[in-house]
Amino acid sequence: MSQVEVMNGNRAAGIAACLARPDVIAAYPITPQSSVVEFISRMIAEDKLDAKICEVESEHSAMSVLEGASLAGGRTFSATSSQGLALMYEPYFRASTLRLPIVMAIANREMISPQTLWASAQDSLSVRDAGWMQFYVEDNQEILDTLLQAFRIAEDSRVLLPINVCYDGFYLSHMSERVVVPDPEEVDAFLPDGYHPQHILLDPDRPMAVDPLTNGDLLTEYRAKHLAAQQAALEVIEQVDAKFSAAFGRSWDGAVEAYRIDGDCEAVVVTLGSMTGAGREAVDRMRESGASVGLLKLRVVRPFPAKEVRELLRGIPAVGVVDRNVSFGWDTGIIYQEVSSALYGVQGTARVPMIAGLGGQDITVEMFEDALRTLLERGRAGSACSPEFPETIWLSQDGEEETR
Amino acid sequence: MRSQYIVPIGPDGIYEIKTGTWRTADPRIDEDACIRCGICLMHCPVGAVTREGERFTINLDYCKGCGICAHECPKGAITMEGRDTA
Amino acid sequence: MSILNRLSAPDMISPGISACVGCNVELTLRTVMRIVGPNSVLAIPPGCMGGVGVVGWDKLSGARVPVFFPLLTNTASMLSGIRLAYDRQGKVNTHVVAFAGDGASVDAGFQALSGAAERNDRILYVCYDNEGYMNTGYQRSAATPKGAWTSTTPHGKLQIKKDTPRIMADHRIPYVATCSPAYIPDLVTKVEKAMANRDGFSYLHVLTPCVSGWGFPPEESIEVCRSSVQTRYFPLYEVDHGRYRITVDVPKPRPLSEYVGRLKKFSRTTEAELAEMELLVKQQWQELRALERVGGEHIDG
Questions:
Q1: Shortest CB distance from C16 goes to which of B12, B19, B66?
Q2: Domains, chain B, with CATH or none
Q3: Which fold has domain A256-394?
Q4: In chain B, which residues touch C (CB < 8 A)?
Q5: Alpha carbon of C21: minimum distance to chain B alpha carbons (Å)
Q6: How far apart are CA C105 and CA C208, in angstroms?
Q7: Which CATH number belongs to the domain containing residue C251 in this structure?
Q8: What is the pLDDT of residues C221-251, one digit of tens each?
Q9: Which residues of chain C are within 8 Å of residue A69 when distances are taken between CB atoms?
Q10: Which phi and psi angles does C128 have, rounded to 5°?
Q11: CA-wise closest residue to A350 among A307, A396, A393
Q12: Can you name the CATH fold of A3-248?
């Protein structure tokens, strides 16, 4: 029987990890994810979870322990944020290039400096090119559900890649919501019965070198196969979401959710993570007063669902991307560039980069309404007023003008 | 496509270099002087010295000619003999 | 079983690897892995042994046991993870072995090493100490002794050698030992003790003089090792469940100048630096003798 409980995002992540029957967990604290690993530690100590836990001395070792365990054939999980993710970057990169289906939650947090603890997507987006898959979720139910989906997607033989499930620090990690916890037996039926690698394994009964020195032509082949696996994952994401929906009654729309993007839609705002909630509210309010606006929730950033994004946004007069992060050197946010790439060559769609919510600042419904109003104006003004490199709008609670 | 694998692994056999070609001198054991102490076997970095019963032999496929065996032999039973490099 | 019988166990490493002529590391690796045997997994971080082909090339392996490259920084942590997964699978008798240079152990990999030792994870960690990053061109490491030439300390290192075996013993892991390729029966015994240690972490520290980086003729390789022990520069001891014991006694030490004098890397070492080294060698030996006595009292009293 599934149960309804009130819990914060970290607990939802911890519960999902336990339900997935991991073999090895690495535990290291960092705000705002620490209670994820605390929860799992308690479950193991109270004999409610049969798993091995390693209390490591840093995140670099956390990822290293998981890689060792995964290479030895174990299902693995950990959680981190920000500085911890940065510290583990060295082993993090090879988790994907060794095709190890590690699952790791990231409670999104700004990168230091300045000294900060609060939410932004800067940490996980800064490592988006390390070959992992990345999901960005909107609420605590989605944290739990997506982590369960992640174990299945990661271990799928067409994929075999590690997966990050990212959720905004404090906004989700520390905020309590109603969450449906699935029945463990139903989760067992949904997930593969243990991790049984065929492609890479340290096994004395079948000795081989793992990761020998490799010539450039062979390296190129492995890279090509890795790229192909990310593309194949797009289909697997949809399939697993459908299977999840059939099993548990909840769907998360795969890689991209189109919210109220209909035929006459004039402006769409693209969101990532918990800000989506405020965005939906803004869309609803404006629709009520007659505006034709919509929202595109980007649930998966790696692999980037370029075709789906392009198809959904083609023909929309104005699209704004709200980035809770910055892309140094481009004067915009990161997701803006990704969406722009997907829209390359599409005519008649003004693209507007927007930055908001850095350092954990709230992105309010009103800010979204301002943004959508601006987009409506841009859309109506047409291509004459749509520069190739539009200036970034820095949304703030004091109004757009109060920016740089 | 050079590999049927999706990830860098080395299951197809042992990688080896014929390091015997490095040598500029060959070790020779004088069987009569040899006291079977095994010090040559213990200290050969390449593991080229093997023992069969009472006899010690040196595998010249891999011997790099370092001369440790000759240097360490307590009875001077091993000599490093130069050879033509032509 | 006699030492020669034990050393006749099959070689677990490829017969042809491109280690330098007379390499002490190659000798140590082959010896250790003959004793450890096939029921094992071997971690070779970047360094000499990885560079000479022990992890293999392309689709071939350089060993007859599962072998892999950890990163320079995380050998011990990766092994912690392997041990946890293996224990869960019931592979409790499979040896989880590191063969790591001093760079990977006392410098970049030190945090991981200390962390795994503090957790007392059941792994067999062998550090081969050639007193520098030899594979990359002889740069200094924390294990380089004071006064030694390296490519990054061309006028001699200013700082003393970090005493890693003592630091590891202070983690109070069940087994720590120092070894030398000139004392193979002693080394083999220590490997066997490390393998038999079911109580947690085993750490072996082997001084492996480097023909190329230290500057001596290859055929003198074992003599240099012997000299390191007989001058008391590198005492051979073990710390077994807290009990210190010097395993190769040196009642009449040779003058340190004999060891230092035969190595090109010390050719610019000053008299003052040599005197400092002699003092340190004396101090180290006295401390070991004192620790031997303390261990005895602790256990008996």
A1: B19
A2: 32-82 (3.30.70.20)
A3: Rossmann fold (3.40.50)
A4: 3, 5, 9-19, 22, 38, 41-47, 50-51, 59, 61-62, 64-68, 70-72, 80
A5: 5
A6: 14
A7: 3.40.50.970
A8: 999 999 999 999 999 999 999 999 999 999 9
A9: 81-82, 84-85
A10: -95, 120
A11: A393
A12: Rossmann fold (3.40.50)
